[in-house]
Amino acid sequence: MKRIVTMQDISCVGKCSASVALPIISSFGCECAILPTAVLSTHTAFEHFNIVDLTDNITAVTDVWKKEKIDFDMVYTGYLAGNRQVDLARDLWSDFGGEGKLLFVDPVMGDFGKLYTGFESSYPSHMRKLCSLADIIVPNLTEAFCLLERPYRESVTLDEAFEMAKALTEGGAKAAVITGISPRAGKLGIVKYDRVKNKYFSHFSDMVHTDFPLHGSGDVFASVAVGAIASGEGIDEALAMAVDFTAEAVAETAKNKDHRWYGIDFETVLQRLK
Ligand code: PXL
């Protein structure tokens, strides 16, 4: 059985991060170990939240893993609570990465042109260093602009998106995927550039119009992609599956009048994975 370690927060309420990664990756029949970066009452899109920062506990956990000779097939990083944690994520990869292993980085830091509450303006430059080590990075458009140090624009053409994906790999990542791209009306999906194969890829599904925010949808996308890759899908197939699954989950959420405003109802379609 493949074993993945995901380094991200636990948001006690708010469907994101580890609460999304665990059920989704498990549903692929893969083991999901967690390295919690922080425990939050609720994610940071809530008006009120508190955060217990676990930066000082991280090496205590990984030291034991080293003693126990635990290894992982994949390292998957998500929300990291501050600059020092990004450096600890790089240590995680240097301790547990290596030949035949895969580093998947979701450089979670913002949306709609803004950094999420709590991140310093120097955070993207730290994140860039982690991205440089990755096999695959999956920023949304806001995060892609931040990583490239370019001014944010709400939308880009397909050609511009491909150019940005290629430019992102110049920092060192082997492949860059930009999520949440809508180059044609009614379509939403991803573009990818693979530096090793010098190949582009894109996949779109029908856009589901919603009048509510899609908090955690990036975490759903990334977790499906990670689970699918770990269970043997090709990377492009895994990414396409993640786009389609996320769109289905959003569509189900839109149908449910009682849906929670703070996350998407991925639970209702979880059985469709595999
Ligand atoms: O879904 C990304 C995410 C993860 N974790 C926390 C967040 C967010 C986005 O706001 O606040 C704590």
Task: Report strand %.
Answer: 15-25%
Count of alpha and pi helical runs: 8
* Strand segment count: 11
CATH class: Alpha Beta
Given the helix and strand composition, which structural class is it? alpha/beta
The CATH topology turns out to be UDP-N-acetylmuramoyl-L-alanine:D-glutamate ligase
Total discrete domains: 1
Main sheet characteristics: 9 strands, mixed
Helix-strand pattern:
EHEEHEHEEEHEHHEEEHH
Uncertain runs are: none
How large, in whole angstroms, is the Cα Rg? Answer: 17 Å
Shape: globular
Bound molecules: 3-hydroxy-5-(hydroxymethyl)-2-methylisonicotinaldehyde
SSE blueprint:
Layout: E1 3-13, H1 17-27, E2 31-42, E3 51-53, H2 58-67, E4 74-77, H3 83-96, E5 102-105, E6 110-111, E7 114-115, H4 123-131, E8 136-137, H5 141-148, H6 158-169, E9 175-181, E10 187-194, E11 199-206, H7 217-230, H8 235-255
Parallel strand pairs: 1-2, 1-4, 4-5, 5-8, 8-9
Antiparallel strand pairs: 2-3, 6-7, 9-10, 10-11
The structure holds 3-hydroxy-5-(hydroxymethyl)-2-methylisonicotinaldehyde (PXL).
